[in-house]
Inverse folding.
């Protein structure tokens, strides 16, 4: 879409500036590869704008250390040292969340996911970040660990201009319905189908 233009004629009574300041809810779902990678790319744009970036990984173990984490945290350090970009917070459920280190996420991942969502909900209520990446957040909803209707209500009614990107397979219909941008990653081919293991620089 050249120059981010659209041929649609909005009928919402808002100015172009007002529309550009609206909070956006993005869902990257589907069976294909690239959901988190695309979301982190958007987080880079958010950092460049000087936004406060918060990344919350709801399923990945703390032992699964990905390159994107190092990259974004390095940019957060750059912000602290020079003021360039914005601050970055990165939390992983598998570590028990940084604000509740005594919590054993490995023994009770459902409780850990609930704790994580309670914390993110509180952050949304206090407008703590400008950009949230809720990585693999669809799974706690799909598994019945979180109430989908409650999640949707909190996201729809969040205050200010807080942008939220959610990743994961099997995004619930209620979430897709209220999202502003929904992208489904469709797998055509993947080396995993031939028994190949993940590759450094490609999968992590």
């Amino acid at each position: 879409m050249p120059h981010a233009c659209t041929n649609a004629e909005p009928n919402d009574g808002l100015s172009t500036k007002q529309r550009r300041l609206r909070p956006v809810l993005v869902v990257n779902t589907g069976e294909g590869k690239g959901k988190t990678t695309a979301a982190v790319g958007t987080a880079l744009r958010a950092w460049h704008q000087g936004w406060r970036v918060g990344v919350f990984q709801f399923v990945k173990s703390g032992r699964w250390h990905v390159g994107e984490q190092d990259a974004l945290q390095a940019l957060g350090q750059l912000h602290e040292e020079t003021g360039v970009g914005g601050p970055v917070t990165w939390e992983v459920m598998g570590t028990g969340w940084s604000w509740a280190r005594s919590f054993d996420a490995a023994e009770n991942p459902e409780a850990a996911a609930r704790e994580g969502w309670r914390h993110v909900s509180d952050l949304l209520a206090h407008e703590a970040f400008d950009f949230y990446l809720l990585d693999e957040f669809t799974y706690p909803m799909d598994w019945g660990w979180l109430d989908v209707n409650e999640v949707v209500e909190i996201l729809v009614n969040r205050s200010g201009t807080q942008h939220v990107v959610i990743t994961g397979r099997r995004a619930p219909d209620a979430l897709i319905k209220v999202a502003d941008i929904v992208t489904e990653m469709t797998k055509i081919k993947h080396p995993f189908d031939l028994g190949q293991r993940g590759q450094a620089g490609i999968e992590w």
In short: Confidence is low (pLDDT under 50) at residues 98-103. The two ends are 30 Å apart (CA to CA). The CA atoms of residues 91 and 97 lie 6 Å apart.
